[in-house]
Structures are given as C-alpha cells and as structure tokens.
Amino acid sequence: MGVPVSAVVIGGLAEELASKKLERVYAVQHDLLASYTADGYTAALEQLIRKVNPSLVLFPHTYQVRDFAPKLATRFGQVLISDAIGFRVESGAPVFVRQLFQGKLNADVKPGGASPHFASIQAGAFRADQLEAGSAPIENFAPSLAADTIRAKPLDPFRESARAVDLTAADIIVSVGRGIKEKDNIPIVEELAKALGAELAASRPICDSGWLPMERQVGSSGQTVSPKVYLAVGISGAIQHLVGMKGAKQSLPSIKTRTPPSSK
Q1: Contact (Cβ atoms closer than 8 angstroms) between residue 58 and residue 119
Q2: What is the DSSP string of the chain?
Q3: Do residues 234 and 180 make contact, with C-beta atoms less than 8 angstroms apart?
Q4: Pair 224, 83: CB distance under 8 Å
Q5: Percent of the chain predicted with pLDDT > 90
Q6: Which CA distances in Å does 155 have to 34, 68, 83?
Q7: What's this model's pTM, rounded to 2 decimal places?
Q8: Which of 20, 73, 217, 260 sits 20 to 30 Å CA-CA off 51?
Q9: Cis peptide bond upstream of 205, omega within 30
Q10: Is 264's pLDDT higher than 50?
Q11: Residues 6 or more apart whose Cβ sits within 8 Å of residue 2
Q12: Rounded to whole angstroms, what are the CA distances from 136 to 15, 18, 19, 128?
C-alpha cells in the first residue's frame, strides 16, 4: 500500500519489535491491563487508534483477538474482517482473502466505509523469516482507564502444556495419514523425515488413533504451517487437512503406500 507501518503491543515485546523495520512501536501500559479483559483492551486501543488515526489496523487471529477485536471495530462503525489468509492491493486499497466453508471457497473482502479498517490474519499465512530488520523508536502510551468500566474479573490464565515440537518453525515437513494402514509403518516415514532433515507431522486420524501425539497434527483442528516443502504420505487431501498446510511454498502429492511383504 506504500504507507508507513507501526506496531502496538500491550505489555512486553516492545524492545523486540523495535528491531524490525517499523516507523514506530507503541507500548501501551496501564495497571488495569496487567490481566487481559475485553473491556480494558478495547478501551485502551480505541484511545490509541483515535490518537494515531491509522487507515488499517491488523491483528493476529488468536482466541483473544476474536474476543475483543469485533467490539473494537464496532466502536468505529466497522466490522472485523477475520481470519484472512492473504491480500492484494487494488487502487491503493487492500482486498483481503478469506476462506469459507472450511476452506472449500475463497472470498475477496474489500473494506468499506471510512477508515480505519480492521482485519485479523490467520497464523501461518505469512512467514516470519520475511521480516526486515530495522530500528524503530518506542513511544509509551498510557490510556485513561477506570476500574469500574472493566466488568470482567479475570482468573489465572490458562496455560497450555509445552509442545515438544513447533511445526510452524519447520522448513520441511513430512506428514503421514491413515493411508499407511497401521502404526507399525510409521517408523518408515520417520526414517524419511530424518533423512530429509524434516519434522514429522500427521493428519487427524493418525493423532486420534494415538499413533502420534496431538501436537504433531496439521489441519483445521491442529497446527497451521507454512514450510518451504510439505510432503504428504498416505493422506487423502481432506479439506480439513488442506486448511492447515495451504501456506506451504511447495507441496508434493500424497504418496500411496502399501504394507511391506511379510518376511515369510
């Protein structure tokens, strides 16, 4: 779009963001933002957006963003274009691409009305290694918040158990499906992944059967990945799985497998 980009963070990470190619980093700080609440985040970001007056506000498509971002967009008479997987620019304005019906259709969505416009981006839609280094100043922003305007009383945050593997960071992934027929054939695919220097992943039936841990599942109910190469072994290509790996730079067709002959 040819416009400068700034980043906003509530809490930490301001120093890390300042090392990227940005015009400015806004560090939003207030005691009432120590714990997440939809009321607090909405009020704080509304004040900052009205001060900065951006044309476009982008979010990561997380559970937290789904909670407060539609409310924030409504404060400006807009809707949130959620879970976008890509975009293009037409006449200087963005057109976002969203998936419908679990990825069976792609829809172009062009923001309407006066700016600012709001959109959230699906995890894995863009690779982090494309970020450009730079040096951006950090500007602290203290919103005006009152305790009686925050209706929720947050409990301790839910903490997901640590993953043994982060598939989103893998350059090469070898993924296995129920076409391998039985659990005893998984070591064959593991050898292939090891030879390629790849991470081993799986479709949902494999994880549901307990043949591989759930943290290795790719798909709409698993991880969304965008490796340089994605090799599918014995995977049918169900849309739920394609949703999770559509960002791969190169995907190789599913390899049909057969059970090795008996030693007898």
Answers
A1: yes
A2: -----EEEEESS-HHHHTTBS-SEEEEE--GGGSS--HHHHHHHHHHHHHHH--SEEEEE--HHHHHHHHHHHHHTT--EEEEEEEEEEETTEEEEEEEETTTTEEEEE---SSSPEEEEE-TTSS-GGGPPB----EEEE-----GGG------SPP-PPPPS--GGG-SEEEEE-GGG-SGGGHHHHHHHHHHHT-EEEE-HHHHHTTSS-GGGBBSTTSB----SEEEEES----HHHHHHHTT-SEEEEEEP--PPPP--
A3: yes
A4: no
A5: 63
A6: 12, 17, 27
A7: 0.69
A8: 20
A9: no
A10: no
A11: 92
A12: 9, 5, 7, 18
Q: For the segment 176-230, what is each residue's pLDDT rounded down to a tens digit? A: 999 999 999 999 999 999 999 999 999 999 999 999 998 899 987 788 888 999 9
- Residue 33 C-beta-side C-alpha neighbours within 13 Å: 19
Summarize pLDDT for 42-70 with one digit per residue, the tens.
Answer: 999 999 999 999 999 999 998 899 999 99
Sign, CA torsion 37/41/42/43:
positive
